[in-house]
Write a structure and sequence with these properties.
15 helices, disordered C terminus, Four Helix Bundle (Hemerythrin (Met), subunit A), two-stranded antiparallel sheet
Length: 302
């Protein structure tokens, strides 16, 4: 089986360009249980096979090995794996990712999506930084987004957007606590507060404020009018739409349990939107540079 994780990223792993995978025992056992739950069996009564057995053979072929070795906890060495679940639980870390990918490829088309969804759900619950997308494992690296959020907080403090800053911090706190609904709500509040600060307004929804941003300021005049309409009418409407449709509105009689991913999306959108507004403000209101003559006068002794 070609193109498994350890082969695709062999050089990156060797050069430590990506973090070396790590999987606690509890997570490994849960992943093995997901695989077992999706196992398919086929063949005649006298000759049958199943997904786990085929995955073991596929891994042997990928590694060019007659047997698959796993870590032996008893003596610190290694031993031959007794089966697929034993391999997932005790294999070397990069091989766990190979096993999950190999299993996905052997499932029928209609079984792949449910399998992937369960694998990702377990990885998320166990706070793993790995996810599967279309049968391939990827590292979810949040360092860039975390840095962006920190940068936006610092800019808001510097520019005096204190209300927006406080609400953005609340949104991040709610997200960290797993309360996606409140994270979405507070993220939208932070966006609205930033717009109010720019417009010197006390009231207004995001939609109303965005219209005023285009009509009453020159912040968007760097692009043609049609582009301005698209920015205020579509591009910057993502977060308000998320708040209206998911974070508290349009859920029907029974409130929904909002997955964390939507809260994460809201906080990230808020950070991007706020950075855009702050960048526009800074570009159109650069710091005042004092003339050289003023500086020279300050140096005179009288």
């Amino acid at each position: 089986m070609q193109g498994l994780f350890s082969k695709r990223f062999q050089k990156a792993l060797r050069e430590k360009a990506i973090p070396y995978p790590s999987f606690p025992r509890a997570l490994r056992k849960r992943l093995a249980m997901v695989c077992r739950a999706h196992m398919e069996t086929w063949g005649q009564r006298w000759e049958t096979s199943d997904t786990e057995a085929e995955a073991m053979e596929a891994l042997k072929g990928a590694y060019g090995k007659a047997a698959l070795r796993v870590q032996d906890e008893s003596d610190g060495g290694d031993r031959e794996a007794t089966g697929f679940d034993d391999f997932v639980v005790f294999a070397y870390p990069q091989s766990v990712l190979d096993a999950l990918e190999a299993y996905y490829r052997l499932l029928a088309e209609d079984r792949r999506s449910p399998y992937q969804a369960e694998v990702n759900a377990v990885l998320a619950e166990e706070a793993s930084v790995w996810r599967m997308s279309e049968g391939r494992m990827y590292l979810i690296d949040s360092r860039f987004l975390d840095a962006l959020r920190d940068l936006v907080e610092e800019d808001m403090r510097r520019e005096g957007f204190l209300g927006a800053h406080e609400e953005f911090r609340d949104a991040r706190s709610y997200l960290l606590a797993g309360d996606a609904d409140d994270a979405i709500h507070k993220a939208n509040c932070a966006f609205e507060s930033a717009l109010k600060a720019l417009l010197n307004q006390r009231e207004g929804t995001a939609g109303e404020l965005l219209k005023r941003l285009r009509a009453e300021t020159d912040l968007l005049h760097g692009v043609p009018e049609e582009a301005q309409k698209a920015i205020t009418g579509s591009v910057l409407q993502g977060l308000p739409a998320l708040r209206h449709k998911v974070g508290g509105h349009g859920q029907g009689v029974e409130p929904l349990r909002i997955p964390r991913a939507y809260g994460d999306l809201a906080v990230n959108l808020c950070a991007v939107y706020l950075k855009f507004l702050l960048d526009l403000k800074k570009e159109l209101s650069p710091p005042v540079v004092r003339p050289e003559s003023d500086a020279e006068d300050d140096d005179l002794p009288f």
